[in-house]
Amino acid sequence: MTRSAGATDRPWVPLYRAGAVSAGVAVLLYVTAFVVVAVSEQPPESVGGGALFEYVDAHRTVYILRQMLWTVPNLFLMVVLLALAVALRHQGPSLAAAAGMIGVSSWAVAFAWPTTGDGSLAIVVLSDRYADATTATERATAVAGAEVLSALNDVPAAIGVLQTLGVLLIGLLMLRGRFAKGLAWLGIATGTIGIVSEILRPILGWAYAVYGLLLFVWLAWVAVALWRLARNDRLATE
Which parts of the chain sit beneath pLDDT 50? Predict the structure, then answer.
């Protein structure tokens, strides 16, 4: 990198560092979520008869922790995609802007989606209402709400497709420079497999985890790459 290029990017060094740290934190949260899911008792598949509510009542802390571990990384991934889009802006301004907008907005909108793919915090509220219900109608209403949320967990969401599209576009931009070609191709593979996985999620079952594992590896590599980029851009102006 030339000295003038380094000077141009010097103001963005804090963002690159924030992106690197955010990518690392997101990986740690996701790995923790996988461990918690693996070692904890799984929720019942059926909501009927209040079985899901009984599970949530008996495993309240663990259930809430699982939902938070799948939700909180969205915040850090917004920073990661923004940092990558800025870092790649000279490789293709229009594509970088599109990738950044799609990536950041899709992870942000995920906060408004009522489910996490592993459940929903709203089910905790419905569980409390079910426990406090005094009539069959009130209990039936709570169960119906939980059934809707459970169904949404298995429905392909446009948000998930857009998230993986953002990763794919970033990978395509990386092919033009600034990052290792291996990281670029991994991003392309992650984004492509992710799009297919999101669309076919209802029928993939545990095979969906393949996309998740690719995303973890990609994020870990991105964390290292952004940190090195921040260091190199800083040294280029010293």
Answer: 1-7, 238
Do the beta carbons of residue 99 and residue 173 sit within 8 Å? yes
List of residues 6+ apart from 132 with CB closer than 8 A: none
Please tell me the total count of domains within the chain. 1
**From CA 213, how far away is CA 139, in angstroms rounded?**
39
Tell me the residue range of the domain where 149 lies: 3-235
Per-residue pLDDT tens digits for 163-186: 999 999 999 999 998 899 999 999
Indicate the Cα dihedral angle 201, 123, 158, 212, nearest 10°: -50
Measured CA to CA, the distance from residue 10 to residue 184 in angstroms comes to 23
Phi, psi (deg, nearest 5) at residue 157: -105, 140
* pLDDT value for 156: 67
Q: pLDDT by residue (tens digit) across 20-56?
A: 999 999 999 999 999 999 999 988 876 666 788 989 9
- Measured in whole angstroms, the distance separating CA 75 from the mean position of its chain's CA atoms is 8
Print burial letters for 34-46: b (CB count within 10 Å at least 16), e (below 16).
Answer: beeeeeeeebeee
Give the global pTM: 0.87
SS3 assignment, position 114: coil
Rounded-to-integer distance, Cα 229 and Cα 60, Å: 42
